Structure formats: C-alpha cells, structure tokens
Amino acid sequence: MTLMYLLWDTFYAALKLVTGLVALYQIVLSVYGIWHRRRPITHAPQKRFAIIIPAHNEECVIGPLLESLKRQTYPAHLYDVHVIADNCTDGTVERARAHGAMVHVRENRAEQGKGYAIEWMLARLKEMGARYDAIVMFDADNLVHPDFLAIMNDHLCSGDRVIQGYLDTKNPFDSWISVSLAISYWFDNRLWQYARARLHLPCTLGGTGLCIDYPLLQEMGWKATGLTEDLEFGIRCVRRGIIPVWAHDARVYDEKPTSFAASFRQRLRWQQGHFQCAREHLLPMFLEGLRERNLAKIDMAIYLFQPMRSMLLFAGAMIVLGLHYLSPDPTDAASNPAALMVTNLWVAVNLILFLEVPLALLLERVNWRAYFALPLLPFFLWTWGPVTLQAYFTRSNRTWYHTVHKRAIRLDELRER
Are 49 and 151 in contact (CB under 8 A)? Predict the structure, then answer.
C-alpha cells in the first residue's frame, strides 16, 4: 500500500510541478500590467471601417448596440454598419434596419456559426467592391464605448494591423455566474492582456471588439470557421509574424450568461475549440518559437496549453482524494519529502496567483460589489475542471451552440452604475 501511495504521490507532484511552472510564468508577466497610462490619441480620423455584426435571433439586444455605434466620436461618414442576419427566425432584420444598419440576410443551415457568417460577409464585401481600410467585429449583444473607433484608427495609423479591444461586462451583478465571469475577464484584461501588450507579446483575440487591417485580411483570408474562430485567426497571425495588440482603453461590453447551465455550454464550446486549435498548433508553434528564439510564439503555445493545465489541476484534485483513500497512515505523506516540497511551492505560487485577482479589481477600479463575490470564485474556477474534461473527450465535436441574450441594457445605464 505504501508503494502505491508513493507512486500516486510522485505522479501528483509531477502534475503540480508542470502547472505550477505555468502559474509562475503568468505571475512574472503580470507584474508588467500593474502600471497603466492611458494612450493619447495622436492621429486624426482617416481610416474607413466596415463594422460587421453576426446576429442569430438577436432582436432583444441588437438595438442598444446599434445606438452605441451611432454615438461614436468618430466621423459617421468613415464607417458603415453591416448586420448579418444569420438564419434568423425572429425580428432581428426589422430591428436592425430600423436603426439604420445595412442588413445582409444569410440562410445556410448546413454551415452554422459565427465563423461561417463572417467568412460569408467578407466574401460579400469583396463582391460589392467595397473600399475599407479595416474590418471591426462585434457581437450583437455588445455595447461600444464612444471612443472605440477613434482608438482603433490611432492604432492602425501607428502601424498595428490586428487590434483587440478591452472586453468588459454589461451585466456583472445579475448572478454569481455572471460576476464570476466578469471577475475573470477583469483579471485577464489587466494582468494578462495588458501585461503582454507592454512586453510586445501577442494578446489573445476575444471574438468581439476586434479590428483587422482589411488588406491583411484579404491577403490572409478569414478561414476561421471552428468553434473558436477568434483563436484560430490569432494563431495564424502569430505564426505569420503579426502580433495582435491590445487596446486597453477601447472598451466593449458584452452580456455574460447568468445560469450555470448556459455558462457550462458556452465554456464547453470554448474549450472544445481550444483543444482543436491546440492539437494543430501547440507543438509546432512551441518548437518554432524555440528554434527561432521567438517569445511571442512560445507565449501563444503556453496559452494553448491552458485548458490542459485546467484539466491537470482537476485531475490533481481527484488524485488527492485517491491519496487520502489509499494511505492507511497520515504519516505516509512525510515519506516523500521531494513531493512535499513541490506541494508547498505549488500552494504558494497558486495562492499568489489568486491574490492577484483582487489586485486586478483594485487596479481596474471595478464596482465594490465585485469584492463580495471573491469567496465564490474558487468554486467557479473549480468548475472549469469538469468543463475541460468533457471538452477533451468531445474535442472532435464542431457543433455550434447559440448563447441566448436577453438583457437590453443601454450605454447610459452602465454609466449610471
């Protein structure tokens, strides 16, 4: 029994060593996200934008988005709004047209999903002979800060070609699920995305609030029709030597799921798409990064490893239960001092990483109510384990599931809060 315990304990220590090193890497990088100075806008409006909004049965939420786009500080003649009514069976078409958007009706039941809709719209723009400098993508449930296009214009004029805006939340306090997701995003925005921007490392694309240089898009093609089309395109950019940059002050607000079931389905889709991308790109990109001494590629490969890290952490928790069951004597834990040392270091590293969460809330000056949700966050983070485990065993699934949006919140309401 003691030998069995030692084998399990050693294996568990190896898991903690790998996941702990990844956590330590993140801690080191996050230091660069502590100090933030707003980037001044130095370029006058000159870029012409095509705003693309894929919408599947979004009549409840698309109106406030289109209203927020009309209130951009950017000249109205320099951007057009194109709504893709993708297999809609509600009043999305009528609602979008009533708000002055150009609506493109798409009917294709065989190829469903946001990636296919975007690819179809880009081909349509090309057929129309439309002349744009950049494409901007939003989800139908979003709200957009008035300076968004002005900031993107400034980045494009500075030579950036793929820019990701700040992903904020419009309904953080609807439920413990939505506030947990909001906290996760606030942390990622400041101590993951912004920190990497300061180090000239690639940000991860979020699927909305995304701006892409149109000539680059025509050159590369979209070709991202999987469950995580944003991640696919971002990986192709990095492997091509193009660094997606982070625009911390260009804010987009989206609706987070409020129920555990809806959140589980959404995260399952994300993780399935993540595993699909990792299977194709993780090892080749990591090896390319080592060979070329390219930290951007290595960093993106580490990001692709994150779902595996989550799954290993979950497996580790299950192993703890197994160790407790297999060990007839609590003193057996002291029989493997190397594993005990690794455990202590792992606990310390992950404790520091968790304490960075309230630090991120403080730095981002979020509403004080978010701090009261912190005790629930460990449980929410733990639920990523079963999500990721199921995603791993269903990673070949490419079925797209629509996330229903219901909160028709307006930008003025967010400011009042």
Answer: no
